Amino acid sequence: MLLALLLVSALTQDSTVAKPLPTRERIPRTIAIDEVLADQAHLHVGDRVSISPLPNTPGDTVIIGAIVRRGADPSEVARGDLKVRLHLDQLQTLSNYGDRVDRFAIQTKPGTDIRSLIERVNGIAFGFRAYPSSEIAVETSRTFQVVSRFHRAIGIITIVASSVFLLCIMVLKVEERRRDIAALRLMGISRATVVRAIITEAALIAVLGSALGIVLGWLVSVFVNWHYQAVYRTPLAFSIVTPMIVIVAVALSLALGVGAGIAASLRLVRQPPLALFGR
Amino acid sequence: MSESPIISLRDVRRDYALGAERVHALQGVSLDVVRGDYVAIVGPSGCGKSTLLNLIGVIDQPTSGTVTIDGKRVDDMSDREATQFRLRNIGFVFQRFYLMPILSALENVALPMAEAGVPKDERVKRATGLLTYVWLGNRQRHRPSEMSGGEQQRVAIARALANQPKLLLADEPTGELDAKTGTEIIALFQRLNNDGTTIVVVTHDEELASAARRKIHMRDGRVVDG
Amino acid sequence: MRAVLAKASLVRHRARTMLAILGVAIAAAMLLDMVMLATGMRESFRQLLLTRGFQLRLSPKGTLPFDTDATIGDVAGVMSTLRRNSDIREISPVLGGSIHIAVGGRDVSASILGIDPKVQGDYEVLSGNDVTAANAIVVNARLLGELRSKIGDTISVSTGYDPQTRSYSGQRALVVTGTVRFIYGASDQSAAAVRRETLQEMNAQLPTRAGDRASLFMIRVRDSANVEATRHWIESQLPNVSALSIATAIAQVDQRLSYFRQLSLILGAVSLFVGFLLVTTLVTVSVNERAGEIAVLRAIGVSRSHVIEQIVVEGVFISLLGAIIGLALGLATARYLNSILSAFPGLPMAIDFFLFQPRAAWSALGLLIASGIGAGVYPAFRAASLPIAETLRKEAIA
Q: What domains are there in chain B, each with its CATH number?
């Protein structure tokens, strides 16, 4: 929050817009900036800049000590924030915040029981609460829960739509062969055999289609990540193809494909063979 | 009966591909049919009689040779010209009737008139008249599926006469009919010819062939007699 | 006659036709939804921003309104500078913050706006009165419920709260004079409003928020044609602020939500393609079955173009009926999807992601019907161009 108060104005050593060095800081301290800021403001390690809490007010001259890569943080995506890291005491002084912080992040020793530690801290501490990091993550990712729900809804609609499309095309394609089916039936081939043949064909198409779909889906996933990682300048993975997703997708498309084949074939074999010839 | 030929073929050949083979369906056929004649083309299966009829009916084009119908060369017409020519000059009757199953008898007969731009009232009047002529005046609203084979063929004949064509061509018109029904069709053709219609039929049916004034025998893509 | 033939042909295979219509309807519904998604948010946001007629917004430089805790200082100075421009008709300064109220031993927090009731454009009064007095406060229904209060009650409101010591600062007794609906408020947000001077006085004790400050200025320009010119003028006169026109604000939001536009484009294109594929398949199967009939029509003298017309009309029938059903289906699914996305934290209640705009909708459905025409043309042309004699021969054999 406080970071957003800081505005960075670049001061290079040969700048003609020279401001007198404020008296507060004589020895410039170092800061770290994120790669997007470095890119947008054309800053490099070693550059001197001035940071202040308000625009066009005196601030501290600092040296860029490091450029930091963005983390895979979903809440950063799509926001135009530029991040700067300062030494805590410098930020507190600069922003008149006093001897305060927004939060403490605690790393425990391996094997520590987090729950009991939290209980103890909450029992002792006065006026603040400790949370496991995972709970905070859930809270801050509400936006993405909404996006997830939206995706799920789109997914369900797509599945329903695909089922109808598949059934439609299957019925049409099977009907195209009504004369062939009639001829088989007239020859004495049983309904069950005809249905089995069509289902086998449908299953084969479904298997091949699923395989193609998985490859296509994986390629699209790779492209989506490549594209959005570049757009939002983040290492965050936007799309992940997991084994479970593959299994569910294949199972669903097989079920739909075979189901459509069954429905289409049953429709036709129920009719008398001569009717299929149009007599 | 007028003497000027309404159909004139000169050295007509028709070849087409059947798989990898080349079939010579017609091998230099020349013949004339005078106006008002009633001709039966007969011959064994595969002799080229249906191919010949298709060329006369302008639904196919010869590989070489000329075909003249009512003084007009039809063998080199464009698709549009051929279609218009068929619509106004030729009536075709098929072995399998080929009525539109979704239209009534009246609508089937009126179909070519609609294409020729005949106004609706006139269409209905003429179609009714034609159905009466073929003894189906009381079956106008019936669909083909509600009619016997003979009735369907009579509707098909009425349709072929819709635009008062100069020629009536029939390809095995009794092929799908029993003997009794076939006799009805033969009688109808007789009546049409007596009323001045020029008729060419292709047939295996001896009775139908005998009813014609002239028989043309074909074998292996050639006219051998007639 | 052609329309009669086309309709009769479709009725002949009822189940097949219904299935195809259903398929096209689903494609149409998805296409409509994607068009609504692509344009809805932007239009909905634009309508929201224009609700009270303020065309410009000033926020601390480099920020979007209420995006951060930053504020603009010397409000009086800013106002006097702005009043020098005769194009500016009205200025509404707004100070944002948060308040805390102790209710039965627990702390209730809410966001607060300090406004000028004569020119404010942030809320509409639902019941009671606006904040005409210095010690008046108006609240939204959610906050009123949390406080278990009613209009007329006096509540103790603080702008500072130290959770460690559980102490309040910037405290003041305020009378609830009315309930309001915040135009830009989110559904899960408790909010209140007081006069800006009141909020400033309450903030006086807080070092980071003291002084004559505002989070945002909303500006109404006399002539809409001069909005951009006014914007440039403001930025030249006030280097500490960013001036946002509606267009700029929308562009910023567009950029953040570009994902939804891209998604809508892709899914919309896929829907259109699938609709096209369905109609093509249906028409192809239909004409393949009727090759003999079509050859006979040609044989009796029906022209190729008329045969094509009849077949294309079948495709159009399906697309048209599918589009009509799809319209109803699409509106229903849009409502459902909108309800999901409306749960975005902090999203103003008035924002819709899916907005029905007649022109866009008709264009989309028109596109679907046009694709239905296109889908029928090729198979129809092929069927009508088959050699007549050969087709009849094949049909006879079959």
A: 5-225 (3.40.50.300)
